[in-house]
Predict the 3D structure of the following.
Amino acid sequence: MNDANDLISFIASMSGEGNLRVEENLGEGFVRLRVSEAERRQAKHDIQHVEDIVIEMLRNARDAGAAHIYLATSKEEGVRTLLFLDDGCGIPTDMHERVFDARVTSKLESMKMDRWGVHGRGMALFSIKQNVREASVLTSAPGLGSVFRVVVDLSELPERADQSTWPQAAKDEDGVFVCVKGPHNIIRAACEFSLEERRGCSVYVGTPTEIAATMYAQAVSHLDASRLLFIDSQQELPVVDRLGYASDAADFIEIASEMGIVISERTAHRILAGSIAPLRSVAERLLRTRGPARSSGKVDLSRDHRGLKISKDDLQAFSRSMERGFAELASHYYLTLSGEPKIRVSGDKITVTFPVGKEE
């Protein structure tokens, strides 16, 4: 047995640890697996269906402190794409790839036990990554929430055949709402999670278009217009609010694309005009209740929704005239421009921001 172990060690030194699955040969057909191989096999076992991914990602967002979680789901030619957007604590840029490594977690001092078991071991994202075609962080930053994309080859990881039927909810013998009837599909996974966590976070499930319309309606209902005046980029906003920064359809399409949502110009115009109704949360729909009042989304037909368009040459000329106008004010208060005036054309408004420095 010592000779066998010596051989294993020699091969490991020559080929690298990643190419060797066995740590020790115990004889008589028994071996001790390396930690990396044991983790990989456990990860393959943890995720058996697409619905398992949904539960794990929802738990992940909850543990990140999210109050709102949006799941945009689509299927094309045997491939299921899942987008998870949340307003949780976010992830630093240098951790966007490393969060998918085994045993990497931000929950050093705490683990959460829920109906699905223990969460916080740093294995959920690793398990998902091992079972899908793609799992990635599209955008995230501390305090700004996250967008995850998961792409699944359904020939390798199956899902329930019926992905359109909603379950029904009824009270159990303890008076608690639970899901009854219906297939155990993606919708039901979201419903079961929502019922379990409905006092802590709201979950929205729909197509990418429906999710975009919902996030836009919610963003414009609470974003303060004066706050937007002091923002240079939508990247400064939480991910779930960024669509509210869009000034026109082209802007909307670009912002949505950065979050993995691909929509047409016609669809963008419809969302901006309020003709695509926002979704109710999963719990509200399941229990047939209404959440807090939101913006009605009614369209003012007298308003021109095409947005103001100004040519690049005219904007540059306008910027130069603003610089000249600023010069007189600057002379009275010992100010200097630290850059060119920033001009933002939004809807039927023109906003000019002067980056100011003080003279020594």
